[in-house]
Structures are given as C-alpha cells and as structure tokens.
Amino acid sequence: MRFFNHKTFIAVAVIALAVISTSCFKEEPLNAECDIEMAWVHVDDLEASFYNANDTLINVISNEDKIVFSMRDDADVTAFAPQFKITPGATITPASGTAHDFSDGPVTYTVTSEDGKWSRKYQVSCNRMARYTTSEIDFDFEHFELDPLYHQFYVWHNSLADGSLGDDWATGNLGFRLSMSQAKADEFPTSVLENGYDGHGVLLITRDTGPLGHMGSNPKPIAAGNMFLGKFNVAKALFNPMLATEFGIPFIQKPVRLSGYYQYSPSAPFTDKQFIEHPDRIDAGDIYSVLYINHDRNGNPLVLYGDNVLSSDNIVAVARVKNVNETNGEWVKFDIEYEYKKEINPDMLANRGYNLTIVFSSSIDGATFEGAIGSTLKVDCVKLTCEEKE
Amino acid sequence: MKRYIATVLISVLASMSAWAIMENDGGCQNLQNFFRKVEGYGRLGYSIGGTAPMGMPAEIRKLNKFILQPNVSFGADLIKPASERWGILAGIHFENKAMHIDATVKNYHMEITKDGQSLEGVFTGKNDSHAVQWTFTIPIQAVYKFNDKWKLKFGPYFSYVTSCGFEGFAYDGYLRVDDPTGPKILLGTTKDDRGDYDFKEDVRKVQWGMGLGVDYFFTRKFGVYADLNWGLSGFFKSSFKTLDQTLYPIYGTIGIAYRFK
Lengths: 390, 261
Fold this sequence. Notes:
The complex is a heterodimer of chains A (390) and B (261). Chain A has 390 residues and is mostly beta strands. Chain A contains five helices and 29 strands. Chain A has two domains: 31-129, Immunoglobulin-like (Sandwich); 130-386, Jelly Rolls. In chain A, 11% of the residues lie in helices and 35% in strands. In chain A, the strands form eight sheets. In chain A, strands 13, 18, 19, 20, 23, 24, 26 and 27 form an eight-stranded antiparallel β-sheet that branches. In chain A, strands 8, 14, 15, 21, 25 and 29 form a six-stranded antiparallel β-sheet that branches. In chain A, β9 and β10 form a beta hairpin. The model of chain A has no long low-confidence stretch (mean pLDDT 91). Chain B has one domain: Beta Barrel (Porin), CATH 2.40.160. Helices cover 12% and strands 61% of the residues of chain B. Chain B contains two helices and twelve strands; from the N terminus they run ααββββββββββββ. Chain B has an eight-stranded antiparallel beta barrel with strand order 1-3-4-6-7-10-11-12. Chain B starts with a helix and ends with a strand. The interface between A and B is large, with 48 and 51 residues.
C-alpha cells in the first residue's frame, strides 16, 4: 500500500513541475525601440556658433523625426559633430560624434533597434539664423500637407525669413488620433479651411473624441480645435493633456501688435469633463499670444504648458482677443496690442532668451475638456508686427 | 453559448448512460441499487492560482505582487464504484477563482477597441490586474482507489460563471502607438495618469477544463484533498482582441472532505 502512496506523490510532483515549467520567465527580449532621445553638440567656441548654451542640447520628442540646431548665421557647420543618446542597445549610422558637413542641408541618421527589427530615420539640420528679420511677419496658412507618419491629418508650415518652410505651428491632431484612429483629415479638430479670408485658412472645430475618449474614470469627451506656435508632445496627451502643449518658439524681436481675421460660431449643448450638459453656458473661442522668458533664474530651459501659459511669472507680454463670440458668418478683424508686464532685455532678446506663442482654440476651456461639440473658429491672415529696428 | 451548454449536457448524459450500462439491468430496482452503492462527499477548500497564458511569453518580465484572494470552494461529489478500484465521480461545486497580480511587462502588444475605434500598441511598464469569477462547476472524473485512504481523480469539468470581473490598470511605463517606432505615450502612477481598464463584458460565461486531484482519508469520514483545475477554454471570449495571448484559469485547491454516504 505504501508503494501506491509513493506513486501518487510522484504523479502530483510531475503535475507540479509541469505547472512551474510553463510559468517560468523567459529570457528578456531585446529592445525593439530605436529612438534618438537626446541630441547635443560640443563646440570649442560656444559664442561663435550659438546664441546661447541651451541651444546646444535638444530633447527629442518621440513623435518628431526632425532635429534642428538653431545657430548663428555665420556659424561654421562644415565639420559639425552632433552626439546622440539613443535607445539602449540600438545602433546609429553615421556614428554619434562623427563630424559631417551640415552646410548643404540636413544629414540623415538611421537608428536600428537592438533586436534588429525596427528602424527610424532622423533628419538632423543646422538652422543658421540672422539676428534680425523683417518687423512684420505674415501667417497666411497656405503651406499645409498631410502628416508624414499617418498621412491622415493636416500639419502646417510657416515661411521663414530665408524663404524656406519651418515647423513652428503645432496642433493637437496627433493626440486626437489616439482615440479616433479612423478619423479622416477633415474630421480632425484642426483642418484646412478651403475658403478663407484670403486663400486657405485654418478651420478649428471642437470634436467628440468618440467611444475611447469617453471611456474610464478620467474621460476626455471632447477635443477643441487648436493651433499654436510650439510643439505638441504626444507623450502627455492621454493622461496629462495640459502638458502636451509646449507653447512657444524662440523669438528675437519685440512684438507690438497681433492682427488677423476670424469667424466664430458657438455650438450647443455645452458639456463638461464628465460630458454633463450645462444649458446656461455658451461656448467661446480664444485667440491670444504670449511672450515669455524661456529659462529659469539659473539659465535652465523653461517652457510654458497649457496650465501656466497665461499665469506664469515668466510672462513678459500678452495680447488676447476679448470675447471671441458669435460672428454670424462674417469675418471679423482683430488688431490687438501686446500689453507688457516686464521690460524687455535687448541682449537677452537678441540671444534667443524669449519664447513667443500664438494660440487659437475653438473652445476657450477646451484644455479642461469643457465646450460644445461643433463650436467652430475660422482664422486667416494673421499678422505679427514687431518693433522697428533703429 | 448554447454550444457550450450542449457540450455540458451531452457529457452528463453520456456518463449517466455509462453508469446505467455498468448496472447491466433495468427498472426501478436498478436505480435503487445504483444509489445504494454510491458514495457521497462534501468538500470545503481554498484555491490558489491565476488566469495566465499557457507558457509565459517573454514579454512578461516579472511578477511584482501576488495577492491571495478569498477563493473559497465548496460542493458535493458522488462517486459510483464501477469495480474494486475504478469508479466515476460527478459533482457540483460553487467556487471563486480570483487573482490579483502586479507584473512588469516589456513590449507587450495590446489593442483597445470600442465601437469601431481602436488604440493599438506595445506597452512597457507595470500592470495590476484583478480577476474574479464565481462559478458553478460540474466535475466528471474517473476515480482510481489505491486503498481506503488514497484516491486519484481525473477528468473534465464544466463551469458556468455566475459573476465575474477583470479589471486593472497599466501604469509606470509607456505605450508605443502601433509599433515600437510609434508615438510614445507616458503612463504615470496616480489614478489620473494611468490607464484603467475593465474587461468584465468580455469574460466567457461557460468554461471547461481538465481536473486532476487526490483524496486522502485519514478516518472513514474525514479526509483532505488537493485538486488541480486546468482551464482549456480561454478566460475571455474569442472576440476579445486586447491581449495577444489567450488566458486560461489554472487553479489548485486544497481542502477538507467529509464522506456523508
């Protein structure tokens, strides 16, 4: 009889072993990512190449594949040797730290993942800028295309002083795509207005974020159409959307007035973050611009986000259109002056120490997901006037 | 759903007729005889286990936490001896198969779909999952008696889920949208910046699997038992696409048994 007992135990032991073996942890898979996370350059004479030290280091946003070093117009970039921090285990060609001639335009770097299955191409360039450009800058919104990654929503380019196109305008369209992956270009919150005040304009419409946007205990039921000078960092778009909008681009002139044309049409019903209707509230649009100091007291880079772009102590000047309300289908001209809260430091201005943003939104409280689906803001022919240089 | 109920019914009927054949003659007398020899057992146990993929994928790196759950199980079994050593067991158990785990994953593919819109990608970070399922389970097993003390049991079981849940959150990591080169979405550790999920609607109501167990009776009436119930139907409906791997409930139960007949 004892003999059988042993057999039983053996049987149980075999089963136990089978369970353990199937639940064993396998060897760690190699990294599949292939990002440039950071790019920087060391130059012997900083003053000769860059306006300030912060411009020598760029934290690369995951959804960007263009890396632009902003440099002095007379900087020598024929043997420029940028260095890169890439995903652990990944490889980069040409190698990090090798010198290349950037004077003829961008150099393409390819990063391949540790597991060899994935790769990304990055365009690295040196943008050599003159200190002073024209005192009037026109934004006509005529340069747009479908986004390079998905070919699904519009992105805009601005005309630069040398005639080339820049990527200074950003929108939240990529964030909207997270919940509405099947949306078409004209169903995104920010799209092209075919018949603008002159040529094409920008069409900003507060949108429903769909079934995924309404999910969970922390819903984001609507997405206001938005457009701004700065960068959209999709990393924060889902859970800290206030931090996804990195407002501002370095700006080297003193803005005086902002003008342009808009149409606004509020929709109904007005809803809050929990998608509860508030019949007493009427949606409004928002058009404003902020100039701010782009570093802290210790000189470290600083950017303003959705939660502090109108309240930070670093703000120097604000221009904001009051009461963007129903315009009954007519184009309305806005022409507003910047109100300065602080004196401009000309040296700091010349050395890219200030950032400027211009912001359009189809729902003034869209950042906190309050507004009315369908509220529409149309914008065109925006002109930024800066102080004339003596 | 109907298909599974049919499977259960056919299995029960098949074992009934098997018993009838064993008896070899018909009529009421036969039914009395049949039950005269049947042994009856009551069981009260505690289960431990998990709802897991068959074979751990390399994407699951580490189990950070395994929190014991109130997995009580109770029920009754009837054993009809067919020969000196062999018999057949049928029973009904009411049991909870719950788990609460926290695991670290790397490049774990997932897709959240709702009403035609989807968010697909690979997640690297931590995941806290809490599964609950209260079931009525019918085991149908062959029994081999080594002696009066030891019995080995083996055979299928069928479960009907009466209440269930599968919820949790992905946190402290990031999702690469579509593939590892796509936009990187950060997930934090607070309730506001982590990714909550609830897949309750996707849990399969009728499940089945194989059971293997052993009984040890230290007196004529009282004994202990250990069972392993290995799910062979996925925990989620086949339409559920969020996770790549099919998850199977695999639970071990230990408990006390009482022979009442």
